[in-house]
Amino acid sequence: MVMRKSLTLLLAVLFCLNLFAQQTKPSAGDGSKENPYQIGNAQELLWFAGKVNGTLEGEEKNVAACAELTDDIDLSEVCGEEIGSWHPIGIVNNSYAGIFDGKGYGIKNLYLEETSTEIIGQGFFGVTNSATISNLSILSGSVSSKGVNIGGVVGNGYQSTITNCHNYISVTGGKFTGGIVGYANSSYISKCHNEGRIKLFSDFGCGGICGATYGATLSYCYNIGEITGYSREGSLVGSHEK
Q: Domain containing 145 — which CATH number?
């Protein structure tokens, strides 16, 4: 038993060291609005997520860091069934507040698997507050979480602007699940569309664009993906409150 625990601990340490080794600071940009980080591969994106979430050793956290993609990003080197789950950019009490421009590029092989029902805000971005996210596609992979507020692009979006973003992957959530945003609170969402299958573990709140909205505005959005829920499901929005 002791040997098994030691082996498990060793594997966990090696995994963490390997993950840290994969993080590479972008060679261009400083994260400001005027000079955003230029991200062209999975290692740089992983570094950026760590910068926002405050998990980089020796680096100061910056929830308002700005970035642009310079190419499609394949995440298969940093997340997957055998590697582990993607850790969203921005989390509860550490919301992302920057400007992220996909520049028309997309994310491939996004893998997020979460079994806890206590987690709030899961997606490529987890929780945003006053962020601007634009021109981004989630091209392949899957998001599955039994938590609350689950989206392909953003899990929980508060006072954020999400424009010209597109989801092509299956998104499964516990409550309030959407192809673009799980729960949009006082946010503006425009020119977005979903083609992925959106489904629930629980009994309400799923939509092709948003699982639920509160004081949010949608314009020029559409869905052609399959919506599978038990109640409060809709092609665009599952549950809406003004």
A: 2.160.20.110
Asked whether residue 131 is assigned to any structural domain, the reply reads yes
152-209, pLDDT tens digit by residue? 999 999 999 999 999 999 999 989 999 999 999 999 999 999 999 999 987 778 999 9
CA quadruple 64, 120, 140, 214: dihedral, nearest 10: -80
Tokens of 49: 């997520």
84: which DSSP letter?
B
Return d(Cα 168, Cα 215) in angstroms, integer: 26
Q: DSSP string covering 129-198, please? A: ES-EEEEEEE-SEEEEEEEEEEESSEEEEES-EEEEEEE-SEEEEEEEEESSEEEEES-EEES-EE-S-E
pTM over 0.85: yes
The label of the residue with tokens 């080794």 reads 21
Distance between CA atoms of 14 and 8, rounded to whole angstroms? 10
1 found inside a domain: no
Asked, for residue 60, whether it belongs to a domain, the answer is no
Q: In the structure encoding, which two tokens stand for residue 123, read together?
A: 């997606």
